[in-house]
Amino acid sequence: MIYVLAALLPPLGLLLNGQPFSAIFNLVLIVFCLVFGLIFHVLLLVPSAHALIAVHMKREDRRHREVVEAIRQHGPPPGYRL
């Protein structure tokens, strides 16, 4: 659901994902892309793409931290070579 929100309302999606600085940067990006998007229409997609990529990276970072913490608590899986 956060991906849909990030695609349709990028700053709000970033804020709800816990990324306030990315949300502020995205607002600046929206203004810039609205001005220059009148000439280069593909620029209108840039804020949404930025939000989707930022949300994906944050979720991958959380998942990675969970795996590392599980390995620290329980040890490596059986058959894992160091």
From TrEMBL:
Keywords, sorted A to Z: Membrane, Transmembrane, Transmembrane helix
TM segment ranges: 28-55
Keyword Transmembrane: yes
Protein name: YqaE/Pmp3 family membrane protein
Organism: Bradyrhizobium archetypum
